[in-house]
Predict the 3D structure of the following.
Amino acid sequence: MKNICKVIFGILLLCMVQCQSETANTAPAIVSVTYEIVSIEPYIIRVKVDVEDADNDPVKLEYKVDSEMGISGNEQTEITLDDLSKTYSLTVTATDSENNTTETTIKIDSPLVNVEVQTAQTYQTIVGFGGYGSWRPLWYNFGTIENIVKDEFIDLMVNDLGLVVLRDEIIIQPSPEKNVFDPSRLNENDNPQKIGWTLDGRIYLYKAYKEAIEKNGDDFKLILTVWTPPEWMKEYDGDPCKGTLKPEQYENFADYLVTYVKYVEEQTGSKVFGVSIQNEPTLTHVDNPTCSSPLTGEEYRDLLKTTVTKFRAANMDNQFYGPETVKFLERMDRTLSVTMQDPEVAPMLQSVAVHSYAGDGIEPGSGTAVEWKNMWDFAQQAGPKDLWMTETTNPLDWNGAMIAAKRIMAALNYGNISMWCWWKLSDQNPDVQNLLVDGQVTPETVKYYASKHFFRYIRPGYQRVDATSSYPSVGTSVFRKPGTDQFVAVIINDTDQQRVIKIEGLTSSGKYDLITTGDGDYVVNKGQFDPASGILLEPFSIATIFN
């Protein structure tokens, strides 16, 4: 009996082992399936499969596209597809040595984005791109006048970035002496280290930019703005950087600007391109070191009329821009509506200028697009005027770079802006307010590379033509050099997938140079491409093509 029990126990034990063995072998697990486009002619994708087998059995993979016959492959397998415009279904089957199988299906979205260009439909003509300052702001202690200019910084700004516009303040006479203006007095300073605060220090910088820009065959465009009038012309309470201009001083203020601009032009040998009578006139900048002098709408109109009349009487035809308000239409309307409604004064303001500190939408229905469209319509109410964006800041790192590109494109496409200027071009630390750090690109300031797609390739005099994208989150701005078949197109892929961009309608055929920028992969020359055949763009990247 004892022997029989042993036999039965042994049989049961064997069965248990066999059962455990049979149930332990499980099907392989497909952890993930991803793909990337490696070629568009022919259309080839590389599929990557992450597969695990708990039993360490060898696993075979089979790939099946739609109803096509499956093909065997490895964990990285290239598959040729027929049509960029189609969406495919890809099924991956994993089979182990025990014929246990697992299957998963993913969608291969169509990457194709069609951009249709209509060259007959034209918009704004570009004045140029730029910003404020030198390798550090001009209020920095440079020590000597020579230190204001670093040749390598000017070279970077002009020959690499493509800057042609320099924005600067009209500095105020330090002496409270009334009704006297001698430009040489602006070179007096109680601190000899602050040479950048003097007018001669600024002119030294202007001449360096001018020489470099004109060497490239472009015109140097200096635009000057008043941050606050001389203190003896104002009512102020303790801080001469603040306060309001007295109406009885409007004539003196206008004479001050005439003399100032004339002196700058004589010293630089270059006409001042634009003059703004007051920066951000809706703001008082309380508890802020920024200088200010608020103006009502009526005061702005009267001061503009007085100043422009003085300039014209002095045979000076500098154009006037303004009012450089912040936060778009509400403040713009508050300052400028009275001027716009005055048939005598409205033509005296040639360009409407705004400070744009928000917005990153490139889609036609975005809030940014609507804001810029409204701003453009407002600027045209008294007749055709250019719209400029003359001061802004931007977030840091690559996310900030993408935002910068989208903001510039939205302003170009929906606001028809003809000028874009960053606030500080450079400062000593990474900050949202400056483009560079001590004249250098850093990991935090890669918005420089995003800016370069516009600054360097869309040149002054180029005219925007109509371009429509079939995918809203892929934005495109297209420009043409008038009278030629030279085109520039800036493209932003604001999606998390690769996209193939085909551009139709350019009147020049053949090859275009392609420059791309992505996170960690900055300004890469991809060689020459045919826009009609397709350009492959990585997720969240920027591209510029030009011929």
